[in-house]
Amino acid sequence: MNNFLEHLICPACAGALTAEWLCTACGARYDAPGGIPNLRIASDARVDVVRRFYEHAPFPGYAECDSLSSLRARAERNRFARLLDQAIPGNARILEIGCGTGQMSLYLARADRLVIGADLTRTSLELAVAAAHRFKLDRVLFLETDLHRPGLRAGSFDVVYSSGVLHHTPNPRAAFARIAQLARPGGMIVLGVYNAIARIPHRLRRMIARWSDYRLIPFDPVLRSRKNEPARREAWLRDQYRHPEEHRHTLGEVQQWFVENDVEFVRAYPSALIGEDTANLFAFAADNWLLEGWLAQLGWIHALGHEGGLFVTVGQRR
Amino acid sequence: MLKKRGKIQRGVIVFGSTFGSIAELARGQWRSDSHRRWLVPLAIFLCLTGLLLIVATTVEALAPFIYAIF
Question: In A58, A208, A305, B60, which residue has its Cα 20 to 30 A from A14's Cα atom?
Answer without folding.
Answer: A58
